[in-house]
Fold this sequence. Notes:
The structure holds two protein chains of two kinds. Helix content of chain A is 0%, strand content 51%. Chain A has no helices and twelve strands. Chain A has strands at 3-5, 10-14, 19-21, 24-26, 33-39, 46-52, 60-61, 64-69, 74-79, 88-95, 104-106, 110-115. In chain A, the strands form three sheets. In chain A, strands 2, 5, 6, 10, 11 and 12 form a six-stranded mixed sheet that branches. Chain A has a four-stranded antiparallel sheet with strand order 3-9-8-7, with no helix packed on it. Chain A has a two-stranded antiparallel ribbon with strand order 1-4. The radius of gyration of chain A is 14 Å and the shape is globular. In chain B, strand 4 (31-37) and strand 5 (43-51) form a beta hairpin. The radius of gyration of chain B is 13 Å and the shape is globular. By secondary structure, chain B is mostly beta strands. Chain B has no helices and eleven strands. The A-B interface holds A 4, 9, 32-33, 35, 42-47, 50, 52, 91, 95-98, 100-109 and B 31, 33, 35, 40-45, 48, 50, 56, 58-59, 88, 90, 92, 94, 97-100, 102-103, 105, 107-108.
Amino acid sequence: AQTVTQSQPEMSVQEAETVTLSCTYDTSESDYYLFWYKQPPSRQMILVIRQEAYKQQNATENRFSVNFQKAAKSFSLKISDSQLGDAAMYFCAYRSPTGTASKLTFGTGTRLQVTL
Amino acid sequence: DGGITQSPKYLFRKEGQNVTLSCEQNLNHDAMYWYRQDPGQGLRLIYYSQIVNDFQKGDIAEGYSVSREKKESFPLTVTSAQKNPTAFYLCASSQGRSSYNEQFFGPGTRLTVL
Lengths: 116, 114
């Protein structure tokens, strides 16, 4: 079974600075998908960014980018120019390829605080 | 607007009672999911359905039941057999059976057992 580990329960960043959230995972599969979800105080889960394992190029979405290291099974999220609205819980998630159980396996989350 | 609705937002139940959480989507998605969220444990999959009239158990299905009679609806029943039902419950849906398809989440239901 796949597992996802987020070793940072809480992180803090100053507004306009850059922060990196860590995520590692364990799998025996070679093809899979990785996601970062944001959960603000409203508790609505919002997809931030996604990465396909067979793509070597790191995904980027505006101020959000990932550092995907397949051999190390690492998938970190970098938030640049942090804003107050980025304060939330961030969850890393793993998804098996098509044909198997299409569920998401989540990490335990990292709470990000953004300070002035 | 397309989206996922969950009702009620807050639900209180006495011990020994069954309770049903509603999840409706108008995104025309084939697949639907139920997750449970507890503090410090992230989200865990309870049940999922990839097509009408078919569903599979997730990681923590004991004490829960579901049905999928309509494409847009995937209600979750928390039975009295669930020993610790107090939690936040999230419903999600995705299009097709491709694993890459994004899962869209509803706003959640907070269930408290009194």
